[in-house]
Design goal:
The chain is of the alpha/beta class. It contains eight helices and nine strands. It has a four-stranded antiparallel beta sheet, with helices on one face. Helix 2 crosses helix 8. The longest helix is centred in the C-terminal third of the chain and has 17 residues.
Amino acid sequence: MNKKHTSAKEKIDKTKQYDLKEAVDLVKQLAHTKFDETVDMALNLGVDPKKSDQMVRGSVVLPNGLGKKIRVLVFAKGEKALEAKNAGADFIGAEDFVEKINGGWLEFDKVVATPDIMGLVGKLGKVLGPRGLMPNPKSGTVTFDVGKAVKDITAGKADYKTEKAGVIHVSIGKVSFESEKLVENAKAVIRAIEKAKPSTSKGKYLKKMSVSSTMGVGVPINVASVVNV
């Protein structure tokens, strides 16, 4: 652990739960690298992700975007390919891109597919799956409404999915964003995750929450100050 990381850690009061704005301000203040770090949010949920009916998964369009260019690949044909092009997709095709990806090409950040082509895209499961790039109806990336899907992604759509131990990690912007914009994005994420609460989840749902930058340390957030935002 380097000295900057250690001194940043010392500035966080371990006995304190910060309100959202305070936590965001602290993350911005403690970011110490030369590049514009991403700000991430971690949420510990009262769910058991091993149970399929307690898997929390979805996406939310952040009001202030993610602060980076997202390269979108769309698997579509005919009219839907044209719709994807008009919406600003970076790459559009079908069999040609299956070959390209199997050949090692991965210069894209998100994948959208029309349902009729999912049989073809399924052949890429071993490549796209482990990278979290497989299109999925729950995140709105398997759809005939490809125009909306592309626009949402390029506007700054953040996907979220419960990982081990019921934790969700989701990006809410960049360190260079004004605090208010990061707070707005964070609130949009919290609202979406609250809405996605499984009916089978018992007890406390939002258990812990923190924000951090790519190379920074986590700042704990007082959950009571942000529920029902």
